[in-house]
From TrEMBL:
It catalyses: O-succinyl-L-homoserine + hydrogen sulfide = L-homocysteine + succinate. This is O-succinylhomoserine sulfhydrylase. The keyword Amino-acid biosynthesis applies. It comes from Sphingomonas morindae. The gene is metZ. Keywords: Amino-acid biosynthesis, Aminotransferase, Methionine biosynthesis, Pyridoxal phosphate, Transferase.
Length: 402
C-alpha cells in the first residue's frame, strides 16, 4: 500500500500542496528506491505475443512505447496534475510544445481564437503566424480589458488563450471574469501559467479549462532542462490532447522528466523565498528607476486583482528606464552578480532586455503595442541573498547615472 501511496488519488487528494510536490505521483519499482527511478527506455517487452496484442488493443494495462507512455514521465504528470488540482496532465518536450499542442489539438480550419496581445514572443507567433497559416482566424486583445474579450467573440470562436502575469510586461488578466465569458459562449480557455507556477496561482480554481506550462521555468527552477505540461479534465486530455500528441510526438524525455520531478520537490520553498526577495528588490528599485512593474507592489495598476489570484507577487520584475536601449544595456553590463540571460525562473537572478532578445522577432509596432519599450528590462529573481542583489543593483544603477 505504502509503495503506491503517491499514485492513489484517495490518499494524495488529501495531501497539502507541499506534500503533493514531494510525494505526488511516486511509484516505486520492486527495489523500493526512495527517489524516483529514471526509466531510460524507448520500448517495452512483453511476456508473450498475446500480451502485446492485448496491450495494443487497450485490454491490458501497461506501456508500449515511450512516445506514448513512460514510468518516469507518468510520475511527473501525476505530480503536476495534483499540484494544479487538475484531473489529468501530460508533459511535453518544452513549454512551446505544450502551448502548440494545447491549441492545435482542439482547433481546425474555420475556427477562430482570441489571444492576448501581451504574450511570450513565441506564443504571439502561434497566434499571429502559425494558426492563420492553417486557416484558423485569430484576434488579439488587451488581456487586461475583460470587455475586449467579450467583444472579440464570433460565432466560430473556439478558444481564448492568455497568460497572467504576462511576459515581460507583467499585465494581470482577470482569470475568473474572462473564463466566465468563455463558458457562457462554449469557448475553451487555455491559460499559460508559466510566470506564476502552481505554487502561486491555480487558474482551474478560477474557472480555466486548460492550463499550459513551460516547466523550464519555475518547475525545474534551476535552469537545467526544457519541459512543458498541459493540464485539464480527464476528457480533454484523453479525447482531445492525446490523439494529437501521441501521433505528433512532442514527448518529454524520461531524464528531463526526472529533473523536473526533483525541481518540484522544492517548488513551494523556492517560489516563496524568491517572491520575498523579489518584493524587497522591487521596493528598492522603485525608488531609483522612473517606472517599475511588480504585481506584489501597491504601485502595480492591477495589484488588487493580482493579489486575489496569486498568493504572492511572483519572481519577475519589469523596469523601465528613460535612457532607451543604451541605458538599459549599460545597466545590464554594469551588473556583476546578476547574469545577462533571457531565461527566467532560475535559482540564479537573471536579467534581459526584451526588445533586443526575447521579443526582437516581433515588429517594433507590435512591441510598442505590447508595452515593450527600448528602455524596458525584465528581471527574474533567484535564490541569492537579497542584500547581495541590492548591492549589485546599487552599484550598477550608479554606473548608469541612476
Ligand atoms: C518560457 C515561456 C514559454 C515557452 O517555454 P519553453 O519551455 O521555453 O518552450 C511560454 N510561455 C511563457 C509565459 C514563458 O515564459
Amino acid at each position: 500500500m505504502k509503495r503506491k501511496a503517491g499514485q492513489d488519488r484517495s490518499i494524495t487528494q488529501n495531501w497539502r500542496p507541499a506534500t503533493r510536490a514531494v510525494r505526488g505521483g511516486t511509484a516505486r519499482s520492486e527495489y523500493g528506491e526512495t527517489s524516483e527511478a529514471i526509466f531510460l527506455t524507448s520500448g517495452y517487452a512483453y511476456d508473450c505475443a498475446a500480451d502485446a496484442a492485448a496491450r495494443f488493443a487497450g485490454d491490458q494495462p501497461g506501456m508500449t512505447y515511450s512516445r506514448l507512455q513512460n514510468p518516469t514521465t507518468e510520475m511527473l504528470e501525476q505530480r503536476i496534475a495534483l499540484l494544479e488540482g487538475a484531473e489529468a496532465a501530460r508533459t511535453m518536450a518544452s513549454g512551446m510544445a505544450a502551448m502548440t499542442a494545447a491549441l492545435l489539438c482542439q482547433l481546425q480550419a474555420g475556427d477562430h481564437l482570441v489571444g492576448a496581445k501581451a504574450a511570450f514572443g513565441s506564443c504571439r507567433w502561434l497566434t499571429d503566424t502559425l494558426l492563420p497559416k492553417f486557416g484558423i482566424a485569430t484576434t488579439v486583445v488587451d488581456s487586461r480589458d475583460t470587455e475586449a474579450w467579450a467583444a472579440a467573440i464570433r460565432p466560430e470562436t473556439k478558444v481564448f488563450f492568455f497568460e497572467t502575469p504576462t511576459n515581460p510586461t507583467l499585465d494581470v488578466a482577470d482569470i475568473a471574469a474572462i473564463c466566465a465569458i468563455a463558458r457562457d459562449h462554449g469557448i475553451t480557455t487555455v491559460v499559460d501559467n508559466a510566470f506564476a507556477s502552481p505554487a502561486l496561482q491555480r487558474p482551474l480554481e478560477f474557472g480555466a479549462d486548460v492550463v499550459a506550462y513551460s516547466a523550464t521555468k519555475m518547475m525545474d527552477g534551476q535552469g537545467r532542462v526544457l519541459a512543458g505540461a498541459v493540464c485539464g479534465s480527464e476528457r480533454f486530455i484523453t479525447d482531445t490532447l492525446l490523439p494529437f500528441t501521441r501521433n505528433t510526438g512532442p514527448t518529454l524525455s524520461a531524464f528531463n522528466a526526472w529533473v523536473v520531478l526533483k525541481g518540484l520537490e522544492t517548488l513551494d520553498l523556492r517560489i516563496r523565498r524568491q517572491s520575498e526577495t523579489a518584493l524587497r528588490v522591487a521596493a528598492f528599485l522603485e525608488r531609483r528607476v522612473p517606472r517599475l512593474l511588480y504585481p506584489g507592489l501597491a504601485s502595480h495598476p492591477q495589484h488588487a486583482l493580482a493579489m486575489r489570484q496569486m498568493s504572492a507577487g511572483g519572481t519577475v520584475i519589469a523596469l523601465m528606464l528613460d535612457g532607451g536601449r543604451a541605458q538599459a544595456h549599460g545597466l545590464l553590463d554594469a551588473l556583476r552578480l546578476v547574469d545577462i540571460s533571457n531565461n527566467l525562473g532560475d535559482s540564479r537572478s537573471l536579467m534581459t532586455h526584451p526588445a533586443s532578445t526575447t521579443h526582437s522577432g516581433l515588429s517594433e509596432e507590435v512591441r510598442h503595442d505590447m508595452g515593450i519599450t527600448e528602455g524596458m528590462l525584465r528581471l527574474s529573481i533567484g535564490l541569492e541573498d537579497a542584500d547581495d542583489l541590492l548591492e549589485d543593483f546599487d552599484a550598477a544603477l550608479r554606473a548608469v547615472g541612476l
